[in-house]
Design brief:
Number of helices: 74
Strand content: 5-15%
Low-confidence stretches: 1-25, 61-83, 310-358, 364-368, 814-822, 965-981, 1012-1042, 1064-1086, 1173-1181, 1219-1240, 1389-1395, 1418-1425, ...
Helix content: 40-55%
Largest sheet: 6 strands, antiparallel
Strand order of the largest sheet: 24-23-25-26-27-30
Oligomer: single chain
Length: 1903
């Protein structure tokens, strides 16, 4: 404050009356301090003026510059520092002034200290990772930032992580939105009390400076905005302005982050109306301000808004806040109220839409309520700032600034009101926007923060008419895309609907507004206002009616549509979002009795709107044929509110139902949809394309069903319960177009349906009736029962994962409804009905997720086929449920055959709906059932088992729901007014079942068989199409006889309709329309119909009993069970009847019928006594027989096919099970290769392409199908047991120094530094990284066959997962992936037994033989010179092997291209394959036996190919290490004289490499005794190496002690086989050099202080030698086919050495085993050791350090492992998803981490691309030689890169229900699945990624 005080002393006069231009260096701090002091005085006018002048100058200085920057000549005008300089200068000034002379940073810190920080309020943008906890949330939109979430305690809560789509803000600390228990530690304290008051002078300057600053920003926005020209979108200009303003807005944003104190200053500034008036009025002399004000007015006008000054034109007063502005008006009035949008906008849109034939409808405009749409008056900065934010289409920065202010309560209220005031303007801008998606997200980003708060929403509703505004704005928005409805009466329709093809609907542009509306309706107080306001309800119904009947489908009858419109997506989305979701929102507040009034209001206006709709479309009683709309939101509103009224509010249903006529109209359209569903499934709409099927599926799909099909069915149930049942039933059959089929005649004519569709339509009609009568969703089930039924239905179709169940159970779409996914009831119901199956692996490697499967008792008692049919989107799911049910019954032994769907007991009906059951007791239905039973019995065509099943189901439903115990005497006969009395006497099913019908008169075509015969004898079949009756005397009826008349359903229905319409007219009954109205008349070519009388003499009971005989295929198969066991009648629930087929169903029905009445029981017994086979029709015409036969044959063929398919599937399954096991997934069990019995002269191979078998010859060689791949798995071995962990913090890092590959690299480069290059390359093996691994599936083929196979693959256009050009293919037999063919060497079986006979030659003789054989160059059965096919193939496969790996992995020589390189590479290939096989066996040979891939090993063939090529490089005999191993050389020092580098001392050689070199140099096939000889010689060297290494490892004292003890025993008989003697000799020899001398003090520290006991030394020596013995034994096993013995780990050494012939056979195993006893020295031991040691001594003369390092070879590698992953995925995610990439230092969009080495990479990141390779591909080549395993951080899945292909492997992290969460969509906590990770590791080690994973694709180096 010092500077300020000094300035204050200077008196009142301004010290610097003329400020220099801001460009000059100026002491801002001093000025600021002075001004602050001036303003602190009581009379601060002078200071204020001075500050104003300064600000005017500073801030306006930047304005012209910005304008210049806006124009073209920006660069020229830029002058000094370019346009940015002045602005930065201005910002600097502002910062200085705010700080009042102090430092700006200190000022910030000071202000922060006064932050009450009760709310977090952190604002984020799209793609931010946030959390939502349903346990803590009050509002469903609640969200928390990661920091607050992790600092709060949410253990055991229902939370998930999500990626924000539209952005959001953290609610921590806001108790309106979440419970306080969930607050984090920082925001728990209500801290207003303990924060000190803000000192007045701290923020004083801010209060003066900020208004000018914000005004300056607004002026900028005014200047920068130019109305877009009509044709040019103006995003460019807007973005330019915004870029210039970036620093200013960021400055404001930083201010908001200073905390509560600064926010409240900003709030004052933004909402102060006086400030705004003074600065912006545009009056006054400043021309700049004037211009700016004009631009503002222009912008307002162009937006179709008026400034309130002009408002007198409208003559509207501002409505008072209390009343609703929408008056209740009739339909036309309300529609007419909507003001016309300005015409320019309208035409502009019309032009762009190019709608052509469907003209848009305009509604007339009136002045009413124009104010909502068109008037905007800005009174404060905040209001104008929001106006420009909207105008500029919600720039992200502005949005963030406005939201950052929200923690300030006063601001929140002011801002919300401003937002509401601009709501209409937002809608207009949104409609015009080109980027409506982005804009939508930004709007919702703001509105969700405002409207989720109930208190705030209520306040705005009361004070700003929020509801009126929202409804009006939505109405206006939809008005712009209305067209005339074509439903029903195309010409005269007055109804308008939205056009689903318009962008507004197609792009979901309405989404933000609807989402806000749904959001505010979730608040009870707001919803109540809405439900009480009649005007609003009228307007809302008006809005809903725009969607009523949209997207009309017309059935194509002639040709297929050219263009399949996809508008149905838009239509379904619109109905769900704009109609159904607000409906669910309102319903959630109508739960108690007190809310009855609301329901009555909605229902009343709903019915009015429906009535208007029927009038508008001119609807009388028949729907127009061949059209259907799936969208009836008015019907559904009506239905759902009715359901609520009865279920929760105890309203009397009849009090809210309309009259009969209205009910008849109401049922028509929902019924039409049900019939159309059946038509669509019968392929009658096939010419409309696939989209119509899509609509049928969407209509029943889980997200839509409870807003679509469920209300429709419920509405039909309500109508059915109140209308005349006969009328309803006949309507149903007429709608389904199967009336003509329901005749007893065997032939009929259907005027409206093709014969091929009749069967499925009849099935559809009956199924619909069953659903209608069985479904209780809205008729009395409780919420928990509904949930349980839904869950059972879904689980019966298929086992489900937890998340798919959550998704499939139709949840009440409103977030505040009772059943929240994951809520208590969901979990408890789930555990009651299902068992959890933990995630498992199937053979073949495909991974299962954790599944829920129905419990046995659910199958037994709760499986409900009706519910399944209702909920299946695909028909196959119904079949799947039945198959699973069948399997359950078979398994549990309840029923062996093919069961029928079980009959399930229903929940009792709610009393209001009792009338529904009258459908089951009406004559029309009984006639239909009787007719169908008869037709089925008579085998008429077009009737299926499904029909019979449904018929029996309906009969059973009728018996279950019979009205009352029927009296035994015959029910009195109804009066004569019913025209089908002659059919049945009453309407009760129980009594009608026993009623015998003797004769039926039918109308049949003249050609029908019935006509030709005497009518009395006729027994044939018929249709409900026409059952008319001649009056017989009543007597006959009493005797249950009578001719039932032809009965016409259509006439019946018409008559009923007329009765209702013309109640007043007593003559009405005669006014029946003509029976065949034009719609139903047959086409002209129709056959003549004539009447015939059929003799029937059956009742429903007798038909059922005969049906039983027919189904069982036995005569008199039915015997009434109660005759044997009278108990049955007392307790009828018998489990034996609950599952079974048709026979069981019939028995169950007969039993129920007998129970219901004694008469029935008696009649059943009578029928059974005298039953005879049903008389078949006398003669069947040939034609009829033909069709019947055809049908039957088809059926049989179908069944046969099914059976075959099933058998095939089971065969395939069992084959897969036996052939696959996870370790070796190759499908086929291949033949053994080349190990046939000795008596076979040559190995015989089968070619899997041409199928011939024969030996492999030179001219036509056979080859093995092999896959060559480069592998770095060996290089990943480490020497510590504990696998490395994946780093999850900055401290943890992984360094690759201790890997096998690194150690070998170091060793080779060390050797190359000191020794001759060619010699170095023979002393080691390479291939630890990038070694070539060869594997085969074991199948062979002729190489010429293979070439033609490849040709055919090349010409195949099908997209394969592999690249044929790279030589890739799949094995023709087992489809395993491969990329080369390894030729089989001819012969090599004949001599096998000769070669293996042990010979008795001495070791010296053998050594000579070996040397001679190695020297002979061409000693190969096949001469290389002659170019045979075989040798060509050998060469080409060698080329393949070389090309498999990258150059860097095979060139280690200092001189490029040297032959030594190839030599090294070739024997290293052999080494790699042996080492890998050893790893696959678990790192040792204790298990023995053949390898896991024993039969599939191709090492033998590989060896021959390598040997052939190695022979081309003969080693000069002087360099051949063999001589050094077996001979004493006299003169050693000759070399040292030369200048060139020495050879590698033999003790530094890698013995295993020597072994491979020796063996591959020999002519093949090798003799066993030569092999053993080589091994013995090499073992001596190995043992010496072990002793030397041991001597280096121990301390000086130990060495001298051993040297001494050993020397004493040197002359004993077996001194050469005693390790003590040998050790002491080695020590004494090596002491001659400087090897031991260099041990300084630091060395001693390293030496382990263990005392070496003889046992520990023996163990060390054995461990040193074991790796060599293992590799050698494996090699022997492959070359000579001997099995490996199995053993304990501790005996491995002795077993392997005796197996290799190192141990003398007479060796005794009693005393402890000593490794030295295996030695067999070819020359005197001491001489040769001394020769070897002298080489080392001469080296250590100069380099003692390195000499020692080279002696100790670390040979004990542990098995390779992937990195260890943490238990919880969140720890990985939180560390890596924000981590920056080390290459490009950005946070990657798709981060990934390598699971082999832990490297962090950018997936697909162009930032890290090198020479067209993206980072992951590059890393896979460097780390795994082409194989990479990456964990994608943002998706939790693992991706495998193999060469040029990649595949998604799956996830090793599963949630609590055993499911993957790919892309973290659900965001539930994930835990490691150890089994899966093990499988991944197993596939990596065994190199089987290519075989097990099926979905590969090319990555084009782009990953």
């Amino acid at each position: 404050m010092a500077a300020a005080a000094a300035a204050a002393g200077g008196g009142p006069q301004p010290p610097q009356p003329e400020l220099p231009a801001p460009g000059l260096a100026l002491d801002k701090a001093a000025t600021a301090a002075h001004l602050k002091a001036a303003l602190s005085r009581p009379d601060n006018r002078a200071g204020a003026e001075e500050l104003q002048a300064l600000l005017e100058r500073v801030l306006s200085a930047e304005r012209p510059l910005a304008a210049a920057a806006d124009s073209e000549e920006a660069a020229a005008a830029g002058g000094g520092g370019g346009p940015g300089a002045a602005e930065e200068e201005a910002l600097e000034w502002c910062k200085c002034l705010l700080a009042g002379g102090g430092g700006y940073d200190e000022f910030c810190a000071a202000v922060r200290a006064y932050d009450p920080a009760a709310l977090c309020g952190l604002v984020w943008t799209a793609n931010f990772v946030a959390y939502r906890c349903r346990t803590c949330g009050i509002s469903p939109c609640m969200s928390l930032c990661a920091e607050c979430f992790h600092q709060g305690d949410h253990t055991g809560h229902d939370f998930n992580m999500f990626r924000s789509q539209a952005g959001g803000a953290c609610d921590c600390g806001d108790s309106n939105v979440m419970r306080e228990s969930g607050f984090c530690k920082r925001h728990q304290i209500k801290s207003s009390s303990n924060i000190p008051c803000v000192p007045k002078d701290l923020l004083m300057m801010s209060e003066f400076v900020l208004p000018r600053f914000i005004f300056c920003l607004i002026q900028y926005l005014r200047e920068g905005y130019n109305e877009p020209a009509a044709d040019v979108p103006s995003e460019k200009d807007l973005n330019k302005v915004l870029q210039l303003l970036e620093p200013q807005i960021s400055f404001l944003e930083d201010l908001t982050k200073m905390g509560g104190a600064m926010r409240s200053v900003l709030t004052q500034v933004l909402t102060n109306q006086q400030n705004y008036k003074d600065l912006t009025s545009g009056l006054g002399e400043n021309s700049c301000a004037k211009k700016s004000h004009e631009k503002y007015l222009i912008a307002l006008k162009s937006s179709g808004l008026t400034y309130p000054e002009d408002k007198l034109v409208y003559g509207i007063q501002e409505p008072s806040a209390g009343t609703s502005t929408l008056a209740v008006q009739g339909f036309a009035g309300a529609t007419g109220t909507l003001g016309q949008l300005d015409s320019s906008d309208e035409e502009d849109q019309d032009g762009s839409q190019g709608l052509g034939k469907r003209k848009r409808v305009k509604l007339s405009s009136s002045t009413k309520d124009q104010s909502i749409m068109d008037v905007l008056k800005h009174k404060s900065f905040l209001e104008e700032l929001l106006f420009w934010t909207i105008k500029y289409e919600f720039p992200q920065k502005m949005v963030t600034f406005l939201l950052n202010m929200l923690p300030d309560q006063e601001y929140k209220v002011a801002f919300t009101k401003t937002f509401v005031q601009h709501y209409a303007f937002i809608m207009k801008t949104l409609k015009k926007s080109h980027e409506s998606d982005t804009m939508s997200n930004r709007i919702v980003h703001i509105s969700v923060q405002l409207f989720s708060n109930e208190e705030l929403a209520r306040q705005v509703t009361e004070e700003c008419q929020l509801l009126d505004i929202m409804v009006t704005v939505l109405l206006y928005m939809m008005e712009s895309c209305l067209i005339k409805s074509e439903l029903q009466d195309e010409e005269n329709s007055l109804h308008v609907v939205v056009n689903c093809g318009e962008a507004l609907l197609k792009n979901n542009t309405y989404w933000p507004l609807v989402s806000d509306f749904i959001n505010i309706l979730s608040h009870q107080s707001v919803a109540k206002r809405f439900l009480e306001d009649h005007g609003l309800l009228v307007t809302w119904m008006n809005f809903v009616s725009f969607f009523q009947g949209m997207n009309l489908n017309k059935r194509e009858l002639n040709e297929h549509v050219e263009f399949e419109s996809q508008t149905y997506y838009a239509a379904f989305a619109a109905e769900l979002e704009a109609c159904a979701q607000p409906m669910w929102g309102l319903l959630s507040h109508c739960k108690v009795r007190e809310t009855q009034e609301y329901t009555k209001n909605v229902v009343r206006y709903c019915i009015e709107a429906l009535q208007d709709w029927f009038d508008a479309i001119n609807f009388v009683d028949e729907p127009a044929p061949n059209q259907v709309t799936f969208h009836l939101p008015l019907h559904r509103y009506y239905a759902m509110f009715l359901s609520k009224a009865v279920k929760c509010q105890e309203l009397d249903l009849d009090s809210v139902l309309p009259d009969q006529e209205m009910l008849m109209k109401l049922m028509i359209h929902p019924l039409q949809i049900q019939a159309s569903l059946a038509e669509i499934h019968s392929n009658m709409w096939v010419r409309n394309g696939l989209q119509i099927k899509g609509q049928a599926m969407t209509y029943v799909q889980s997200h839509f069903c409870n807003s679509m099909i469920d209300p429709d069915i419920y509405l039909l149930q309500v109508c059915a319960s109140r209308l005349d049942p006969d009328y309803f039933i006949s309507s149903v059959f007429e709608r389904f177009k199967v009336v003509d089929l329901l005749t007893m005649a065997s032939q009929h004519q259907n005027t409206v349906l093709d014969a091929e569709h009749e069967r499925s339509m009849l099935e559809g009609a009956l199924t619909f009736l069953v659903i209608l009568l069985s479904l209780r969703l809205h008729l009395g089930m409780s919420d928990d029962e509904i949930l349980r039924a839904e869950m059972v239905a879904q689980l019966c179709m298929n086992d489900r994962t937890h998340s798919s169940l959550l998704d499939l159970i139709p949840e009440n779409p409103n977030p505040k409804s009772g059943i929240i996914p994951g809520s208590y009831s969901f979990e408890s119901v789930l555990s009651a009905v299902a068992d959890f199956k933990a995630p498992v692996f199937e053979p073949g490697g495909s991974m299962q997720q954790g599944m829920y499967t129905p419990k046995a008792e659910v199958w037994d008692q709760e499986f409900d086929p009706v519910m399944v049919i209702l909920r299946t989107v695909y028909r196959r799911d119904v079949q799947s449920a039945m198959d699973r049910y069948t399997a359950f019954l078979k398994q549990s032994g309840k029923f062996p055959g093919n069961p029928w769907p079980p009959y399930k007991k229903r929940t009792p009906l709610h009393p209001s709906y009792k009338g529904l059951m009258r459908l089951l007791h009406c004559k029309t239905l009984h006639i239909v059932l009787f007719t169908l039973l008869y037709k089925i019995l008579m085998d008429h065509q077009n009737l299926s088992e499904h029909v019979l099943c449904m018929v029996l189901y309906l009969i059973e439903l009728g018996l279950e729901n019979s009205a009352d115990e029927e009296s035994d005497e015959e029910a009195s006969v109804c009066g004569p007014e019913r025209c089908h009395d002659s059919w049945f006497p009453g309407s009760n099913l129980v009594s009608n079942m026993r009623h015998f019908i003797n004769y039926v008169r039918v109308r049949v075509p003249e050609t029908a068989p019935e006509v030709k015969r005497d009518s009395s004898a006729s027994t044939s079949s018929d249709s409900l199409g026409s059952l008319h009756s001649s009056r017989r005397p009543k007597v006959l009826q009493r005797e249950n006889s009578g001719t039932a008349q032809v009965f016409s359903l259509v006439a019946e229905r018409r008559k009923k309709f007329q009765e209702i319409i013309n109640r007043s007219n007593s003559e009405a009954n005669q006014v029946v329309r003509p029976k065949t109205s034009s719609k139903w008349s047959a086409p002209g070519s129709a056959l003549q119909l004539t009447t015939a009388i059929l003799e029937i003499k059956e009742s429903i009971l007798s038909l059922l009993i005969k049906l039983h005989h027919k189904l069982s295929g036995k005569q008199n198969s039915y015997y009434p069970p109660w005759l044997d066991d009278i108990e049955i009648l007392i307790q009828p629930e018998i489990p034996k009847y609950s599952h079974g087929d048709g026979i069981t169903a019939v028995e169950r029905i007969l039993l129920k019928a007998a129970l219901q009445s004694r008469m029935n029981k008696r009649i059943i017994e009578e029928i059974c006594r005298k039953v005879t086979p049903p008389v078949p029709p006398k003669k069947i015409t040939a034609a009829e027989k033909k069709t019947l036969d055809k049908e039957e044959r088809r059926q049989k063929a179908r069944e046969r096919q099914q059976k075959l398919l099933a058998e095939f599937a089971s065969r395939q399954k069992s084959f897969m099970e036996t052939a696959m096991d996870v370790d070796s997934p190759e499908n086929d069990i291949p033949m053994e290769i080349a190990t046939a019995e000795p008596q076979v002269s040559e190995a015989v191979y089968d070619c899997v392409i041409c199928g011939q078998s024969g030996p492999s010859s030179e001219d036509r060689p056979t080859g093995l199908v092999v896959l060559l791949q480069a592998s770095s798995v060996l290089g990943q071995c480490r020497d510590n047991v504990e696998p490395k962990k994946l780093p999850i913090s900055e401290e943890e890092q992984i360094y690759p120094w201790d890997t096998c590959a690194a150690v070998h690299d170091v060793r080779l480069s060390l050797l190359q530094r000191y020794f001759k290059d060619s010699s170095c390359l023979l002393a080691v093996s390479i291939g630890w990284e990038g070694g070539v691994y060869v594997q085969t599936c074991g199948h062979t083929l002729h190489i010429d066959c293979h070439k033609s196979y490849m040709e055919s693959l090349r010409n195949d256009q099908v997209l394969q997962g592999f690249s044929v050009d790279k030589g890739e293919f799949t094995c023709p037999l087992c489809r395993q992936f491969a990329n080369s063919v390894l030729p089989c060497y001819p012969g090599n079986n004949v001599e096998n037994n000769l070669w293996q006979r042990p010979s008795n030659k001495s070791i010296q003789d053998l050594i000579k033989e070996v040397e001679e054989l190695q020297g002979r160059p061409g000693a190969f059965p096949v001469s290389i010179s002659s170019e045979t096919n075989l040798s060509k193939e050998m060469e080409s496969v060698m080329k393949d092997i070389k090309n498999t790996t990258q150059k860097k992995y095979r060139d280690y020589s200092k001189t490029p291209g040297s032959p030594d390189n190839d030599f090294l590479f070739m024997y290293s290939v052999a080494r790699t394959n042996l080492e890998l096989e050893l790893i696959h066996r678990g790192g040792n040979l204790c298990s023995g036996g053949a390898s896991t891939a024993g039969k599939r090993s191709c090492l033998n063939q590989l060896f021959l190919v390598l040997a052939l090529h190695m022979r081309l490089y003969s080693i000069d005999s002087e360099y051949n290490p063999w001589s050094k191993l077996t001979q004493l050389v006299e003169e050693m020092n000759s070399q040292l004289g030369n200048e060139e580098q020495p050879e590698v001392p033999i003790l530094y050689h890698d013995v295993t490499s020597l072994l491979l070199i020796q063996i591959l140099m020999m002519p093949q096939p090798l003799r066993k005794d030569h092999f053993t000889c080589i091994v013995k010689v090499l073992f001596t060297l190995l043992y010496t190496q072990a002793l030397a290494a041991l001597s280096v490892k121990c301390s000086e004292e130990d060495r001298s002690a051993w040297k001494h003890t050993g020397a004493l025993k040197k002359n004993t008989c077996d001194a050469e086989k005693s390790y003590e003697v040998l050790l002491s000799f080695v020590i004494s020899e090596l002491s001659k050099g400087k090897l031991y001398h260099e041990e300084g003090t630091q060395e001693c520290a390293m030496v382990s202080p263990i005392a070496w006991s003889p046992e520990s030394m023996e163990k060390y020596l054995q461990d040193f030698c074991l790796p060599f013995l293992r590799i050698t034994s494996l090699l022997q096993h492959h070359l000579f086919g001997e099995d490996l013995p199995s053993c304990q780990e501790e005996e491995e050494f002795s077993v392997l050495s005796s197996c290799l012939g190192l141990l003398p056979t007479f060796y005794q195993t009693e005393h402890p085993f000593i490794s030295a006893s295996c030695l067999d020295w070819p020359v005197p031991a001491f001489d040769i050791i001394s020769q070897w040691c002298s080489e080392i001594n001469s080296f250590t003369e100069r380099h003692a350090e390195q000499g020692k390092a080279l002696l100790i070879q670390e040979s004990r590698w542990k098995l390779p492992h992937l990195l260890q992953l943490p238990e919880n995925y969140n720890t990985i995610f939180q560390y890596y998803h924000r981590k920056t990439c080390s290459v490009c230092t950005k946070v990657p969009k798709d981060p990934a981490v390598c699971l082999v080495c832990g490297t962090f990479v950018c997936l697909k990141g162009l930032c890290c691309k090198q020479q067209s390779y993206c980072e992951c591909v590059l890393h896979s080549q460097n780390c795994g030689a082409g194989t990479g395993i990456f964990l994608l951080i943002n998706a939790s899945v693992i991706i495998i890169i193999r060469g040029h292909r990649f595949c998604l492997w799956g996830s090793v992290y599963l949630d609590a229900h055993g499911e993957e969460d790919r892309d973290l969509r659900r965001g539930k906590p994930l835990y490691i699945c150890k089994e899966r990770y093990k499988v991944l590791e197993q596939q990596w080690i065994s190199h089987t990624f290519d075989h097990i994973n099926k979905r590969w694709g090319p990555h084009y180096n782009g990953l």
